[in-house]
Amino acid sequence: MNTQSNPGALAEGAPLPLIFVIEDDADVARLILAALKDFGFAAEAFATGASVLRRIQLEKPDLCVVDLGLPDMDGLDLVRRLTAESDAGVLILTGRGHTADRVMGLELGGDDYVIKPFEPRELVARIRSILRRRSALQGLPGNKRRRYASFVGWRLDCAANLLRGPDGVEHLLGTAETQVLRCFVERPHQILTREQLMGNRDLLPTDRSIDVRISRLRKRIEPDASDPTLIKTVYGAGYMFAADVSWA
To answer: Out of 7-16, 127-136, 225-234, which region has the weakest mean confidence (pLDDT)?
Structure first.
């Protein structure tokens, strides 16, 4: 691979991130695989949800690209299964124009979505953005990161994506939720923009993915999600986490 002609390629000798592409249209799957391999990813394609669920029992991908229109199961059900049964990131690829489908995909643990028809290079850029956010969240080898954050009776285990409530009940968060909550607890009492909370990704004015994640977090940790006191909206600026945080 010529890294000079491809500035986004991985450094020589670096392990290749493994991407599973779940897409029943063979032409679309070939297009995605070619783009991924050109930019230095290892990739496998699956035409059904059942086949990829069998595969993840043997090999764990870094990220899955999931088409919502699959022949054997609803793509949203597959997103839920993948986030429950693996630690892979999930990018939803959909031809559905309904906002409800995209919002539900994010609610079920999807990290991002792309609407068909799509530009392959944009798809790759979004995949790389998800992987960067996950790498920053999990920590690189040898990088000692603070793991446990406590605030108003809650305790977040950043390494395991577990949130323990004041009542002792544990909630398994999706990677996207954990990434946003970690941004908040690392910088309490600071205004954070939507771009900062999404890993500095350029957001379109119509992109509501961060709002979905904020809503989910409020429902989990706020005494009254309709009148939030922990995650405050700063109109025209972003959001602020209004709680003291201690680390262990």
So the answer is: 7-16
* Tens-digit pLDDT profile for residues 173-205: 887 788 889 889 988 888 888 878 876 455 555
Q: Is 141 within 8 Å of 122 (Cβ atoms)?
A: no
Q: Greatest CA span in the chain, whole angstroms?
A: 55
Domain 18-138 has CATH 1.20.1420.30: no
Q: What's the pTM?
A: 0.58
Q: What is the pLDDT of residues 105-147, one digit of tens each?
A: 777 778 888 888 899 999 999 999 888 877 765 554 433 456 7
In terms of CATH architecture, what is 148-247?
Orthogonal Bundle (1.10)
Only one residue has tokens 């993840």, namely: 56
Domain extents in the chain: 18-138, 148-247
| Pairing assessment for the beta strands 89-94 and 63-67 based on DSSP bridges | parallel
Q: Say if residues 244 and 188 touch (Cβ distance below 8 Å).
A: yes
Q: What is the rounded distance in angstroms from the CA atom of residue 179 to the CA atom of residue 158?
A: 9
Q: What is the pLDDT of residue 97?
A: 66
Pairing outcome for strands 148-151 and 154-157: antiparallel
d(CA 172, CA 241): 21
Q: How many CB atoms lie within 10 A of CB 108?
A: 20
C-beta atoms surrounding 143 within 10 Å = 9
